[in-house]
Design a protein that fits this description.
Pfam families: Glyco_hydro_15, TREH_N
Oligomer: single chain
Structural class: alpha+beta
Number of helices: 16
Keywords: Hydrolase
Low-confidence stretches: 598-610
InterPro entries: 6-hairpin_glycosidase_sf (IPR008928), 6hp_glycosidase-like_sf (IPR012341), GH15-like (IPR011613), Trehalase-like_N (IPR045582)
GO molecular function: hydrolase activity
Mean pLDDT: 92
Largest sheet: 15 strands, antiparallel
Distance between the termini: 58 Å
Protein name: Glycoside hydrolase family 15 protein
């Protein structure tokens, strides 16, 4: 059975990534890229679905692990009765094919080790043909070829590759796995590990953040960088699929794609941290992905901008600790979600404010999207949380339609771009008035999940952060208070009210963990309201949920005291950096974004930001 998520670390090569367990087992790896079929899928089943474990023969071990300084090179140290041994895991940055290097170093004593390599292509479904002998083997099945190279003899039994060896103090044994081919240059393992470690340190050294949470911020930025697909600049939401939002439940989704919704905060975090090249690459991915007819725009795309992300289930996998079904692809890619139009408009506006070199075609693309939004903002949609029930008039969706029009107006006012600004101002006011009328529950003093409902939605914490209303407005204060009262558990925020209408709206049974990004949004609201002590307390509560190597998932199960959801989660780490920046200077992404829509002193009335 797969380990708790806290027991996994993540390594990657800017094309794909692996989850390495505290027990020395690589339980998840997709080759040759994030969204390819997994050759190690024990994370969603058992050892028979593919894994590579290297560990001492003696089971009773004290295990510690760390990343080497500011790098993605992982060390797992086993201390047992016969001595201490260290396993170093590294995925070198690519010049060619994907490679996983595992180096076993003797620290003290003399330790008997075993390696068990169970390759199963297509998510544990296909058993490859393994040929060769001695210290180099080749595993082949259809289009997939993997080469295994070792400093020790390899033995194949029942289609599993085994090795037994000993390491004494000062000795080292290297094992390598290459997809397609194994370059001879990668046989010098100490050198390639050194170069990989050095590259990550240099990259992390460019970080501008120098506040009290630097270690957590840098680890989050490294994780975000590792989730970027280098050839295109697209950033996957997570490297995994079907890690459940509820232990044993059915809310299991494939997150190995790029969500437009994450656009603005990703851009702002990268820019403010000093990573202009990465921000520019992300913006260029956005522009390429959304090119085409506006009504065909999706909420997510593949890492190359692929649109066809058909969802299906893998019946042969029992799921993470029994949470079925296991899903590949994501049907939400075909949903209609108004908020992504606002995210795109805001992201491109923030890029201009930050001085990124302009793209001559970007404004034309935005104009086309605005024309579509003008005709469709009144329609119900599927909402930010990708509900699989009937469409609703979600309040937050309308807020982001407002944000799209607001940023269009700002594009004309601040950058001299061309467009029907008077019409956009008029639509902006119309949306604002409708949200305040239909999305606000005056009896309870709070904005609701959708028009006419009593349910709360933590997405409405973003209303102040995008500048729809000041954080100090009584309606925002009331919304924050209602969320504190009804959606908070043990200091953490759930996405929305879990009540009688949950299954009707979601199309799924209720029940999930607290959503970490929502809790960061609450901390940002506290900061904008001047509640710095509450913000710091909330932020440090979240930091305490990260595992021993600083990684966060999508959600947290308060009852089970465990991370849940896909892991590591880009949005959780993006928000960690954003809130840390806001705490440091008061001018983090939340502050910048909220001021974008701020009304000027003496400006126009409700719904106009002047």
């Amino acid at each position: 059975m797969a380990l708790p998520l806290e027991d996994y670390a993540f390594i990657g090569d800017l094309h794909t990534g692996a989850l390495v367990g505290r027990d020395g087992s690589v339980d998840w790896l997709c080759l040759p890229r994030f969204d390819a079929g997994a050759c190690f899928a024990a994370l969603l089943g058992g050892p028979e679905h593919g894994r590579w474990r290297i560990a001492p023969v003696a089971e009773r071990q004290r295990v510690t692990r760390r990343y080497r300084d500011d790098s993605l090179v992982l060390e797992t140290t086993f201390e047992g009765p016969d001595g201490t041994v260290r396993v170093v895991d590294c995925m070198p940055l690519r010049d060619g094919n994907a490679t996983l290097i595992r180096r076993v170093e003797g620290v003290s004593g003399r330790v008997s080790m075993r390696s068990e390599l169970n390759l199963r292509f297509d998510y544990g479904h296909i058993v490859p043909w393994i040929r060769g002998e001695g210290r180099r083997l080749v595993a082949v099945a259809g289009p997939d070829t993997v080469v295994i190279d070792s400093d020790v003899e390899l033995e194949v039994r029942d289609e599993v590759v085994y090795a037994r060896f000993e390491v004494a103090q000062g000795q080292a044994v290297d094992l390598r796995l290459g997809y397609g081919a194994l370059q001879d240059a990668l046989l010098d393992v100490p050198e390639i590990i050194f170069r990989t470690e050095q590259w990550w340190r240099q990259w992390a050294g460019a970080c501008r953040y120098d506040g009290p949470y630097r270690d957590a911020v840098v680890r989050s930025l490294i994780t975000l960088k590792a989730l970027a697909y280098q050839p295109t600049g697209g950033i996957v939401a997570a490297p995994t699929t079907s890690l459940p939002e509820q232990l044993g439940g059915v809310r299991n989704w494939d997150y190995r794609y790029c969500w437009l919704r994450d656009a603005t905060y990703t851009l702002l975090v990268l820019l403010q941290a000093g990573y202009t090249d990465e921000a520019a690459a992300w913006r260029e991915w956005l522009l390429r992905a959304l090119a085409g007819r506006p009504e065909q725009m999706q909420i997510m795309y593949g890492i190359n901008g692929e649109r066809r992300l058909s969802e299906f289930e893998l019946a042969w996998l029992p799921g993470y600790q029994g949470a079925a079904p296991v899903r590949i692809g994501n049907a939400a890619s075909g949903q209609f979600q108004l908020d992504v139009y606002g995210e795109l408009m805001d992201a491109l506006h923030q890029a201009r404010l930050a001085g990124l070199p302009t793209d001559a075609d970007a404004w034309h693309v935005q104009r086309v999207l605005l024309d579509f939004l003008e005709s469709n903002w009144r329609e119900p949609d599927d909402g930010i949380w990708e509900a699989r029930g009937p469409r609703q008039h979600f309040t937050y969706s309308k807020v982001m339609a407002w944000a799209a029009m607001d940023r269009a107006v700002k594009g004309v006012e601040r950058f001299g771009l061309d467009g029907p600004v008077d019409r956009w101002r008029r639509i902006r006011t119309e949306i604002f008035d409708e949200v305040c009328d239909k999305g606000f529950d005056a009896a309870h003093g709070t904005f609701t999940r959708y028009y006419g409902s009593r349910s709360l939605d933590a997405a409405n914490l973003l209303m102040a952060l995008v500048g729809f209303l000041p954080a100090t407005d009584d309606r925002i204060r009331g919304t924050v208070a209602a969320i504190e009262k009804e959606l908070m558990r043990d200091g953490l925020v759930q996405r929305y009210t879990q009540g009688h209408d949950t299954e009707k709206v979601d199309g799924l049974p209720p029940g999930e963990g607290s959503f970490l990004a929502c809790t960061f949004w609450l901390a940002d609201n506290y900061l904008l309201q001047g509640r710095t002590g509450d913000a710091r307390k909330t932020f440090e509560r979240l930091l305490g949920l990260a595992n021993d190597v600083g990684l966060l998932s999508e959600e947290y199960d308060v009852d089970a005291a465990r991370l849940v959801g896909n892991f590591p989660q880009a949005l959780s780490h993006i928000q960690l950096v954003a809130t840390a920046m806001q705490l440091r200077s008061g001018a983090g992404p939340a502050g910048r974004r909220s001021r974008t829509g701020e009304r000027p002193p003496g400006g126009a009335g409700p719904g106009s930001t002047g």
